[in-house]
Design goal:
Structural class: alpha/beta
Strand content: 15-25%
Number of helices: 12
Length: 316
């Protein structure tokens, strides 16, 4: 791993750390960087993590590196997945708050200023209950992505507020307390290159609340073809990733139970497990005896499902 800091890194007076994981994003990272350069608030640092890109990303990053008068840290690492890139960014984050920016998106000019001010809307004595402020996004044409939050959502019981947030079907963006992220990193299982965000978000949802605002602060580009987290290609690695995520959530069901039923998630796990076994690939093994029993009872149906899935998606 290699760390490169610009000339402003050691002279920082910051409140927010902006973390940008990058993988083969030469075509889109410029707009993300330009949006940071235009921010009305300058009390932030930018941490970029190149997760083993194979394109000319260095050339693009270095063109901004000392041109933008903001503290910047550029970290180059071997490819391990976006979850590992986020973990490294969090480790080096120095701000009281952290925001994640996808390398194919951009912020509105007042995004960071609005998010800092949003914390002031929470009474000081109540701020310890919250881990984040959640705002909304607009697409590249200026339209809101999803529905706005109900006006009184922050006065509702927490479980109901979570359900209403999910029902907006939108793309959301948040500013989180860095200390909480440092204490709750994503797992980094060997051989797994994608761990879903929900592994951390749902865990934190049990401990802390979120405060919701309807400001649209991020421009979410829906026309990007090379998304970092685009997993439409059904490779064996994709199956390994899915099987691990499903298995981990089943082994921690009290945390992750929700929209997807236990039996449906178990069937998904068993189908991917069957695909891995057919290809001689080791995968996630349950810690729970009950999960092993239930999963074993589904093997017959999972065998049929695995064959159908492999033929449909040409898994290789």
């Amino acid at each position: 791993m290699k760390l490169i800091k610009n000339i402003y890194w050691d002279k920082a007076d910051i409140t927010v750390s902006i973390i940008i994981p990058i993988y083969n994003r030469t075509k889109t990272i410029r707009r993300a960087m330009i949006s940071l350069e235009k921010q009305t608030s300058k009390k932030f640092e930018c941490i970029l993590i190149d997760d083993g890109s194979k394109d000319d990303i260095d050339e693009v990053i270095y063109s901004f590196f000392n041109k933008i008068k903001l503290p910047m840290l550029y970290i180059k690492k071997e490819n391990g997945g976006v979850h590992t890139a986020r973990n490294i960014g969090i480790y080096y984050a120095r701000g009281e708050y952290t925001m994640f920016l996808d390398s194919d998106d951009e912020y509105r000019n007042d995004a960071i200023e609005l998010m800092i001010k949003a914390w002031e809307k929470i009474p000081y004595e109540d701020r310890g209950k919250y881990r984040e402020i959640v705002a909304q996004c607009q697409d590249q044409t200026g339209n809101r992505v999803g529905k706005p939050f109900p006006v009184n959502i922050n006065k509702m019981p927490w479980k109901k507020a979570v359900r209403l947030c999910d029902s907006t079907k939108g793309e959301h963006v948040s500013i989180m307390k860095t200390c909480i992220l440092k204490d709750n990193p994503w797992p980094e299982p060997e051989g797994v290159t994608f761990v879903t965000e929900d592994i951390v978000w749902k865990h934190l949802e049990k401990k802390y609340k979120s405060f919701f605002v309807n400001d649209m602060i991020r421009i979410y580009h829906t026309n990007t073809q090379d998304s970092y987290t685009n997993h439409k290609t059904r490779t064996l690695q994709y199956c390994v990733n899915c099987q691990w995520n499903e298995g981990y959530m089943l082994d921690h069901w009290s945390v992750y139970k929700g929209k997807v039923s236990y039996l449906k998630r178990m069937m998904i796990y068993e189908i991917f497990s069957m695909i891995l076994r057919k290809n001689g690939v080791k995968g996630y093994k349950f810690n729970s005896i009950i999960n092993n029993i239930v999963g074993g009872a589904m093997c017959g149906v999972a065998f049929i499902g695995a064959n159908i899935y492999m033929q449909k998606h040409n898994v290789s």
